[in-house]
Specification:
two-stranded antiparallel ribbon, 2 domains, 69% helix, mainly alpha, 199 residues
Amino acid sequence: MPLLHSLTGAIYLTQILGSALLAILFLQSGIDKVIDHRGNLEWLKGHFAKSPLAGVVPVLLTAITLLEITAGALSAIGCLMLIVSRETTIAFYGAVSSAIVLIALFFGQRMAKDYAGAAVLVPYFLLTLVTIYLLLSLATIFLLWIVAEWNRRRRERRALRYRLRCVICAFEFEDRTATLLPRCPRCGSLNERFRLEQI
């Protein structure tokens, strides 16, 4: 686990907290829509009574319930994966699905002409975008580190390809010729081409 007062630790902690908040937000909301389906449906029918979405409220309620439960479950599993193994993939998909849910809710509030309700969703959406960015940035940093490490090792292998160590005097030398038994420049003995490993 990284030091929490370092930049990496702060990003790690923010990823966990952002995923936890999205998990709580959407699991509670989705489960509430399942438990009190009738009450939510009646309220939403009244809320969308004068909007173009009035005829499809039951379908929209089912869709938003499924989306919220999916986003909450992915965020919760992703939060646990972050804590246990620092794996960001599931949390990233949880944050992306949370953003989709928030866009759908924002659209619904705007269609119902509930502008105050739509404005309340903006901070949640900004938090979701920050969480997506942090989850993606750590994955990008990790990917860049892997590429840099692979390139460094490849350069080392390339540098050691022509290096030889004399079996008689232990002198290290470079021979780029195609001869099978290169001659040591110090003692003149013939040497087989063994792969020289870095210590």
